[in-house]
Amino acid sequence: MSEVLKQGATLQESHVEGEHNGHHNGHSFWKKWHKAESFISKYIFSMDHKVIAKQFLLTGMFWGVVGGLLSLIFRLQLAFPDTPLPFLETLLGKWAEGGVLDPNFYNSLITIHGTVLVFFVLTGGLSGTFANLLVPLQVGARDMASPFLNMLSYWTFFLASVVMFVSLFLPWGPAASGWTAYPPLSALKDLPNMGIGMDLWLVSIVLFIISALFGGLNYVTTILNMRTKGMTMARLPLPVWGMFIASVLGLLSFPVLLAAGVLLLADRHLGTSFYLSEIFFNGQALPNYGGSPILYQHLFWFLGHPEVYIIIIPAMGLVSEVISVNSRKPIFGYTAMVISMASIMFLSFLVWAHHMFVSGMNPFLGSVFMYMTLAIAIPSAVKVFNWIFTIWKGNLRLTPAMVFALGFVATFIIGGLGGIFLGNAVNDIHLHDTYFVVGHFHVVMGVSALLAMFAAIYHWFPKMFGRMMNNTLGYVHFLFTIIPALLVFVPMHHMGMAGVPRRYYSFQSFDYLAQWQDLNVFITIAAIIGFSGQLIFFFNFFYSIFRGKKPVSNNPWKATTLEWTTEEMAPGHGNWKGPVPTVYRWAYEYSPPYLKDTDYVPQHIPPEEVKKEPVKIS
Amino acid sequence: MSTNGIQQPVVPPSRKYQTYKLMLILGIVSIIMFFAGLTSAYIVQRGTKQWLSYDLPLIFWINTIIILLSSLTLHFGYRAFKIGHYSLAGGLVWLTFALGTLFLAGQWIGWLQLTSQGIILQGTVSESFFYIISGAHAVHVLGGLGALLWLALAIRKRKVTLREPLPYQLVAIYWHFVDILWLYLFVFFIITL
Q: Chain B window 153-192: which residues touch A at a Cβ cutoff of 8 Å?
């Protein structure tokens, strides 16, 4: 015992000494890091969650442009299958000799387009950006629980990006398996465009999964453990709830995709047969025996379906916040919003096989998955109902962010209704792998998640860069986004009903599909207009970073949440110069009847100050 | 840019343990899902034609005992650590590290024995699964060994002491986890093969 005491005493001494020297105390690392702060530590290998958020955003935007451009190339092919387009040869070289797109490269284009938009733009770019930006700021923390892991999360994502980008320029072509990478196609190395490109695709996805796990660990821990005083879970703003639920979902489902990827890599390189059995290739029977490609589908969709909720639940949270702030009304049914997000998360684990209705599964099993799938309509409808009732008789301020958020609600309804058709096993047998599916998921999780992302960018831009984006350009951007998007994807529903199959390079050899040629031209033109509309956004974004108007106050949208209480508009590392504010109420105290001069009470204003006189906005 | 806020640590010392423990446990949950994915794939495939059943060589039983022992040594190390016997604690961490290395070597020998019996990675799915799953476990053990090595050196330099016990606690949680994970996988293989 005495030894222990002695030990303790020595510790005490060394502790004091340590304080003196600036070593050995808990946060000496930070001090050192801060002293050494140079351009590199501040903007490149930064551990500041806000800088990491911007890094995620810029990387996501980069991939948005790449993914969009790829889709334009294959849309041109679908619209003008017979006409050589010489500029394609200039652009793509051997993949479009004489201006005619190579069919294998067409497969690569749709694969990379799907992969980068689902993973890099709508997962990394959307929740990577806004979870990083908002979680610490809205819960009242100085940074993430582990800023280092957070930095690692971005750089793994960056590495995944680099690997994917390199694969685009391989002479053997990038992966061409579709974004789902179904075996046996994806397991056979010798098929065209399925060599190193496919391997790099898998490596990139593995890196991306690791990045998403690192991020998710941090978001969940920060939300559970680092909330400021008074910030109970029931007072959290909905974006934080969205990030929390989506992160839990990611932590539980991404590892299963990792397992699927490991087995696929083994099949490709170690000679195993997890997904292969009785394959004839080039007239020869392969030795692989005993595996099952359906196994991959199960493992893949166990992530693949939750993945769409990993994308859309944060989007829902962000939109709820934007709608409530700009309707000047509390979000309708806060608890119902949280419960519905949580039940969507829970149900999303039980619906994966609705992607596999035509894989020969037992019809009884199919009907179980069908009921589970249709059950998701209930929480989704609750959310839509709540958004509409938040707007109802609200004092609407149609800022660009609000307009995009309303666009999200609209497209979510339109796309969601298509889901009810697809969720029925009987309908799905007809609609499976048709353009109906393409139209459905593009509207419900592509366009609507993108609209939510834009809403969030317009709304939180001042917080990120300390300046405002231009409103007029914002409205023009909105019109050039939502109208072309609907013109592109709504007709696809009709094509799918008529049986037009997806992923086809050309419909020239099928008479019954000839009638859709004009519509394909129409869709392609709409897609080009929609893509060009995004240039307005890019101009607005980069121009506003440097030349945008300064916000009139530190709380330009008159919101209640903590991120608007920082002393600086774009806060430095540590977020608050003074102490972290204490929270006294929930995040949606808009237009309560007891207020006279103003219509909202921020979360950090103590109740006694509210009673004495209504909060003044500087 | 403001610098004031950062004068305070990001995670307050009082919440450090629960914060990082929570993060580690969430990570462990992810790893569990990874192995759940693999083992459920195994169960699904088990019903198919050409499923080869075989006995695991004795060495895997020995390995199981070794890795269980290593958890014990790490635990006793922690008890010594808690009463300030740093040199004994450090020694037991080294012993744990040695047992972990022995486990990996034993796994390697086990794989070689299986291969010599004709049960190979490129064989039927039941054979491949054993190599992939136990291999994936070995990768996680390797990570644990790295952590143990770091911990043993840190205790020797007295960087990890009673004032800063967090690294020991975290390494211990992870190491016990890979131990229990192996126990699960081993029992799983014994029952299903």
A: 161-163
Which among B19, B22, B48 is the nearest to A290, CB-wise?
Answer: B48
Position A15 scores a pLDDT of 37
| Residue A611: per-residue pLDDT | 62
Backbone dihedral region for residue A223 (phi beyond 0: left; psi -120 to 50: alpha; all else: beta)? alpha
Which structural domain range is residue B191 located in? Answer: 61-193
Domain boundary among A199, A234, A269: A234
**Which chain B residues are Cβ-neighbours of A42 within 8 angstroms?**
1
Distance separating alpha carbons of residues A124 and B161, to the nearest angstrom:
39
ipTM above 0.95, yes or no: no
Low-confidence ranges of chain B (pLDDT < 50): 1-6
How would you classify the pairing of strands A284-285 and A280-281? antiparallel
d(CA B49, CA B69): 39
Best to test chain B binding among A7, A39, A42, A249 (most B CBs inside 10 Å): A7
Query: What is the three-class DSSP state of A275?
Result: coil
Element (H, E) at A503: none
Contact B50 A289 (CB under 8 A): yes
| Minimal-distance CA residue of chain A relative to B21 | A221
> Which of B158, B148, B133 lies closest to B100 in space, CA to CA?
B148
Beta bridge pairs of residue A600: A590
Domain count, chain B: 1
Is B11 within 8 Å of A226 when comparing Cβ atoms? yes
Helix residue spans in B47-165 (DSSP H): 58-82, 86-116, 125-156
The answer, for A217 touching chain B at a CB cutoff of 8 Å, is yes
Are the beta carbons of A561 and A133 closer than 8 angstroms?
no
Which two structure tokens, joined as six digits, stand for A249? Answer: 């979902």
- Residue-number span of the structural domain to which A569 is assigned: 551-618
Long-range (24+ apart) CB contacts under 8 A made by A522-526 are A522/A487, A522/A491, A523/A75, A523/A78, A523/A79, A523/A487, A523/A488, A523/A491, A523/A492, A524/A72, A524/A75, A524/A76, A524/A78, A524/A79, A524/A80, A525/A79, A526/A484, A526/A487, A526/A488
Arithmetic mean of pLDDT over chain B: 90
Position B27 in a domain: no
Q: Is residue A370 a part of any domain in this protein?
A: no
**What DSSP letter does each residue of A369-387 carry, written as one string?**
HHHHHHHTHHHHHHHHHHH
B117 touches chain A (CB under 8 A): no
Judge whether A60 lies within some domain.
Answer: yes
Yes or no, beta carbons of A145 and B23 under 8 Å apart: yes
Q: A227, A225, A243, A178: which is closest to A456 by C-alpha?
A: A243
In A7-46, the residues whose Cβ lies within 8 Å of chain B are 7-8, 11, 15, 26-27, 30, 34, 42
Contact by Cβ (8 Å): A77, A88: no
Question: Residue B126 corresponds to which tokens in the numbers above?
Answer: 């039941």
Give CA–CA dist A449/A472, Å, rounded: 22
Q: What is the pLDDT of residue A613?
A: 57
CB-based contacts of B120: which residues, under 8 Å, 6+ apart? B114, B127
Report CB contact under 8 Å: B45, A291. yes
Positions in chain A short of pLDDT 50 = 1-26
Q: How far from A539 is each of A87, A472, A473, A546, B52, CA to CA, in Å?
A: 25, 12, 9, 11, 62
The encoded tokens of residue A139 equal 């819960």
Amino acid present at A87: F
Residue of B1, B7, B10 to mutate for A, most A C-beta atoms under 10 A: B10
Q: Read off the CATH number of the domain in which B86 is found.
A: 1.20.120.80
Q: Tally C-beta pairs within 8 A across A and B.
A: 166
Distance CA A296, CA A263 (A): 9
Q: How far are the Cα atoms of A60, A61, A69, A122, A536 from residue A57, in angstroms, in the given order?
A: 5, 6, 18, 10, 17
Q: How many residues does chain A have?
A: 618
Residue B118 at interface with chain A, using a CB cutoff of 8 Å: no
